[in-house]
Design brief:
With 318 residues, the protein is of the alpha/beta class. The chain folds into 2 domains: 113 residues, NAD(P)-binding Rossmann-like Domain (Rossmann fold, 3-Layer(aba) Sandwich), CATH 3.40.50; 178 residues, Rossmann fold. The chain is 32% helix and 16% strand. It is built from 11 helices and 12 strands. The strands form 2 sheets. The chain has a 7-stranded parallel sheet with strand order 8-7-6-9-10-11-12. Strand 10, helix 10 and strand 11 form a beta-alpha-beta unit.
């Protein structure tokens, strides 16, 4: 056993110390995900992060690799079949995004209900104007696809605005903060009730293109759609058609099927759309939270041979 940990993301000296204190006898070396040192990775037992072009090195037959801790919540870009075949333990960064992404979700909702997006445009044109159709979140219904850490935090904050909360999950099991939880198969029935439909889903075979023309047609006239999950869970052409027809009143979008969103894409010119560049989860506390997850998992890994937190289920792809 090499007892080598390689992190492909920058860490402060304090964060490095936390890891080394939790892993006596291990070495910790910092690499670069954009320019990975394959020789360094070839001897790693544990890798934090991922990068292009490292799969063959890490997954060769005689590799000492046993565990990968991703720097992201999503794992769709990793070679999941090969990792599973090799029996590699895989944990993700689920949970680190809940607070900042929830803030972005409510930023979108407040922009739309209070017309703040149009106010910013009016300010740029020195125009004193209001359509007079401002609303509020109180009494509105949020349909939240995904009842994990992000969805649950969103539901919790929604209650402070006295909103009704409906969740969507694979199981449909009750979750704290949600007035009701539907299964994914019941998504068409759930979205009928939403003033806001919020997509926090990971990208899997089951969720690819899930939000399409059929789902948008089931939404109430004037519903707002928010996507901070993965771009490919939404059929973009169908979304634009629903926005143009008025079926959807607006959309707050942080993720897209193609990223970066091309400069000539029609979404840029739609005034009822607010776009952020896949930064909803960005926060100056990100690395601290990943290190917290990793050091917690180190304890169970060293004691029981496997991390216990955020373990990826290969059959579900998250």
């Amino acid at each position: 056993m090499t007892k080598s940990i390689v992190c492909l993301q920058p860490l402060t000296p304090q964060q490095q110390k936390l890891i080394l204190d939790a892993a006596p006898g291990y070495t910790l070396t910092l690499g670069n995900a954009k320019n990975p040192d394959l020789e360094l990775l070839a001897n790693a037992e544990i890798v934090i992060g991922w990068g292009k072009g490292i799969s063959d090195t890490l997954l060769r037959p005689d590799s000492p690799l046993r565990w990968v801790q991703t720097w992201s919540a999503g794992v769709e870009k990793l070679p999941l079949d090969r990792l599973e075949e090799r029996g590699i333990l895989l944990t993700n960064a689920s949970g680190v995004h809940a607070e900042p992404i929830t803030a972005v979700i409510f930023g979108f909702m407040l922009l739309f209900t209070r017309n703040l997006h149009t106010a910013v445009r009016n300010q740029q044109n020195r125009r004193w104007h209001s359509e007079g159709n401002e609303s509020e979140l109180t009494g509105k219904t949020a349909v939240i696809a995904g009842t994990g850490s992000i969805g649950s935090e969103t539901a919790r904050i929604a209650k402070a605005f006295r909103m009704k909360t409906i969740g969507i999950s694979r199981s449909g099991k009750p979750v704290a903060g949600f007035d009701q939880v539907y299964t994914t198969d019941e998504l068409p029935d759930a979205v009928r009730q939403g003033d806001f439909v919020i997509n926090t889903l990971p990208l899997t075979d089951e969720t690819h293109g899930l939000f399409n023309a059929e789902i948008f047609s089931k939404c109430k006239q004037g519903t707002y759609y928010i996507n901070i999950g993965r771009g490919a869970t939404t059929h973009t052409e169908n979304l634009m058609a629903a926005l143009k027809s008025g079926q959807l009143a607006g959309a707050g979008l942080d993720v897209f099927e193609t990223e970066p969103l091309p400069q000539d894409h029609p979404l840029w010119g739609m005034e009822q759309v607010v776009i952020t560049p896949h930064c909803a989860g960005t926060t100056d506390r990100y690395a601290d939270r990943v290190v917290d997850i990793f050091t917690d998992n180190l304890q169970s890994y060293l004691q029981d041979g496997a991390p216990s937190r955020n373990r990826v289920d290969y059959s579900r792809q998250y």
